[in-house]
Amino acid sequence: MKFFVCIISFLTFGLSFSQKKTFPDDFLGKYKGTLEIINVKGKKEIDMEFHFTKTDTIGTYKYVLVYNNQHRNYFLIEKDKEKGQYYIDENNGIILQASVFNNSIFSMFEVQGNLITTTEKFYSDYMDFEITFTNTNKVETTGKGTEEIPEVKVYPILGVQKARLYKL
After folding, report:
1. CB–CB of 88/61 below 8 Å?
2. Fewest beta carbons within 10 Å, which of 42, 123, 133, 168?
3. Do 87 and 69 meet the contact criterion of CB atoms below 8 Å apart?
């Protein structure tokens, strides 16, 4: 009997670890924490929230960033869920492409000479949010420009915003 109980316990415990999370359904909710803004001037901290919830439209999710109680209301829209292709609609005519891999949302875009990369990684009870940016006018070129050693454009990271937000 003890052997049977041990086997059942092992299977139950093992199955709980093998259950794969499904994006976005298993990560919907409200998250809260502190955003660190880091650049050459130093570090600043502000309150941050991320609200990630369903809408009445299949494949469209509310994607709300809250900084110091100021809401930025966006939508995350499925383009091709199987390929991890999404859009972030900022509700002002700006629509960003986003890719989802391994329960993380990635996007990169340029605005007013600034190249911005965003990453949101989701875990069971928290998420990590990070933005890095550089100015495209501050590019440096290295390498030889040959087939063997190509020219490489290097952009210095000018600032980072990062937060660990906990699911409420």
Report:
1. no
2. 42
3. no
